[in-house]
Automatic annotation (TrEMBL):
Location of the Bacterial bifunctional deaminase-reductase C-terminal domain: 5-183
Transmembrane parts of this sequence: none
Organism for this UniProt entry: Trujillonella endophytica
GO MF annotations in UniProt: 5-amino-6-(5-phosphoribosylamino)uracil reductase activity
Domain of life where this protein originates: Bacteria
GO annotation terms (biological process): riboflavin biosynthetic process
Protein's name in the database: Dihydrofolate reductase
Upper classification of the organism: Bacteria, Bacillati, Actinomycetota, Actinomycetes, Geodermatophilales
Length: 201
């Protein structure tokens, strides 16, 4: 059975990106980049908006506010291009131009449930906030990982991650610090029907 990981990088105040900021908020360091390069083989799951954005980067489109990609950003996009990707969309058309991408038009929750039951590797989301929210609400997420970068983007932050989420209890299973500034925390999530009456002992 496959394992499903929801994986975010965020500002301290819970934004997925910020207007005018470079990738990784410009704060990735050698320890963090080395760790990214050591990640196991994974199949990435995404929605149409993330596909359009990331496939555009792969085709050479540079994010707004930048004249060119930094080497770290190029390496990250190249790794994504080589990886297997499943895209959930009713608006995109086949064939998808980005290499190693498969289009799924059906319900994402049903499709991911079937992928988990029939597969054996790691499935991981990338971006795609509404997809992540749907998968978590459906109880399909095994691990919830957040890389927290030391910035507050109150003025420029875009894509608030947790709006619309259910209440979720999180059991920490791993944590570490990269380059003395990036916090990585990983949890096993449990969706709550109602807030607990008492704090856990």
């Amino acid at each position: 059975m496959s394992e499903l990981l929801v994986d975010f990088i965020t500002s301290l105040d819970g934004y997925a990106s910020g207007e005018g900021w470079p990738g990784f908020w410009g704060l990735e360091g050698p320890e963090y980049l080395a760790w990214l390069g050591e990640q196991p083989e994974v199949t990435y799951l995404m929605g149409a908006n993330t596909y359009r954005l990331m496939s555009g980067f792969a085709a050479g489109e540079v994010p707004g506010g930048q004249e060119e990609f930094r080497p770290e950003e190029e390496a990250s996009v190249d790794e994504l291009t080589q990886a297997s990707k499943v895209v959930f969309s009713s608006s995109l058309e086949e064939p998808l131009a980005w290499a190693n991408s498969t289009l799924v038009r059906g319900d994402a929750v049903d499709a991911v449930r079937a992928m988990k039951e029939s597969g054996s590797g790691l499935l991981s989301t990338i971006g795609s906030l509404s997809l992540c929210r749907s998968l978590l609400t459906a109880g399909l997420v095994d691990r919830f990982r957040v890389g927290i970068f030391p910035v507050i983007t109150g003025a420029t932050g875009e894509e608030r991650i947790y709006d619309g989420y259910p209440d979720v209890a999180l059991e920490m299973i791993d944590h570490r610090t990269f380059d003395g500034r990036i916090q990585m925390v990983e949890y096993r999530p449990r969706v709550l029907e109602r807030p607990p009456l008492h704090a856990p002992a």
